[in-house]
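Quick one: C-alpha cells for this chain, please?
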Amino acid sequence: MTLKRIRAYSTISAAALWIVWIVDISVPGAVDRLGKVKGTDFLQFYVGGSFVREGRLNSLYDVHALFARAQAIAPGSRDTLYLPIQSPQTALAFAPLSAFSYPVAVNLWIAVIVLLYSAACWMTWRYCPTLRRFRYEAIAVALAFPGLYSTVLFGQTSALALFAITVALLALKHGWPFTAGLAVGCLAFKPHWLIAAGAVFVVAREWRVVAGAFMGGGAQIGLTYLLVGPAVFSAYVRALEQVPRLGDLLEPYPGDSLRSFFKVFVPSTPLALVLYVAAALVTVYIAARIWRSDAPFEIRASGTVVATLLISPHAFPYDLILLAPVYLLLANWLLKHDSHKVSWPMSLTLYASFAAPLLSVLPAPLRLQCSVTAMALLLLLLWRVANGADITSATELGDSARSAAGTPAVGVS
C-alpha cells in the first residue's frame, strides 16, 4: 500500500460512494430511487420531533401513532415501522427540524452530520503533527470512510456520539478529566454508549471522568424529565425494559459488537450471552490496562474507543464512525514508528475495520470476521504496545525517507 495507491484508492472510493448516494436521493419527495425512505432512520427522529412540536408528548411511545405518522410522511415506502425506544431528549432535539417538510429536514440533518464529522476530524487532526504532510490523503480518506457514508445513508445520530467522544479524548489529552466526563455524559441520549464508555473509565479508576459523566448524564436526563414530565419519562423507561425481549426485532441483522459476534457463532442464546459478558469483561480490563499504561496518548485513547465499540450491546455500521479519531491518532503514531512487528499488522487491522461498514450486505459470519475480529485484534496490538513491547523503537522519520517508502501507516488516516 504505497502513498500513490492510497491517494488513488481513497479518491476513487470517495467518488464512487458519494456519486451513488447523490444519484439515489436525487428524486423529489421523501422516498429515494430504490423505494426506501431518505435518511431511513431519520424518519423516526422526525416523527418524534413533530409530536414534541405539536405538544403530543403522550404519542412518543405509542407505536400505532408513530406508524400512522410515518406512513403519512412516506406512503410509498415499506420501511416506516419503528419501535418507540428512542430517548425523549432525542425527540426534543429534533423538534425544530420537524417544522420543515421531510425532504428539507433530512437534507438539513445530513448537513449537520457532515459538519459534526468534519469538526471531529479537524479537532483530532490538530494534534497529529506528522499527518500534516499528507493533507490531501487525510481529507480523501476521511471522505471515503464508509462509517461516514453509513451514517449519512441511515440519517443516524452516531455523529453526535462521535463529536462527544472526540471532545472527551481531547479534554483528557489536555489533562481535564472532569470536562472529559461531562462530554462522555452527553452520550446519555444513547444509554448503552454511556454505560459502555463509563465501564472502561470505572475499571481504569478515572474517578474524575466518572464523576463528570455522572453529572453530565444526570443533568441531561434531569432536564429532559422536567421538559417531558413523569408520564412520558416512565413510558421511556418501560420501553427500555422491553429491549432485551425485543432484541431480534430491534436488531434484524447482526451488528458489529462482541454481543452480535457470539450471537452469530454460538447457537445457544444463554451460552452466547455468557461468552459475551466474559469477553466484555476481558475487553474492559485490557482497555483499562492500556489507559493506565505509560504508552503514548494515541495508543491509550484508541484503546478506549475500540473497547467501547466492542462491549456495546448494540453497534451497527453507522456506529463505526466512532473510529474516525482512532484512524487519525494511530496514523500519526505509526508515521513515527519504526517497528514492522507492530506497524504492519496494525495497519492491516485498521484497513479491515475501515472497510467493515461496507460489508453489511454480506452474510453475518463474513461481516463479523472483518469488523469485530479486526477491532479485537487491534485492541490486542494496542495492549502489546502499551506493555512496552515496541514503544522503545518509536522514532521520528525524515520527510524524504518516509515519503519515498510510501508507508502503509498513511493509509489509515
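DSSP finds 20 helices and no strands in the chain.
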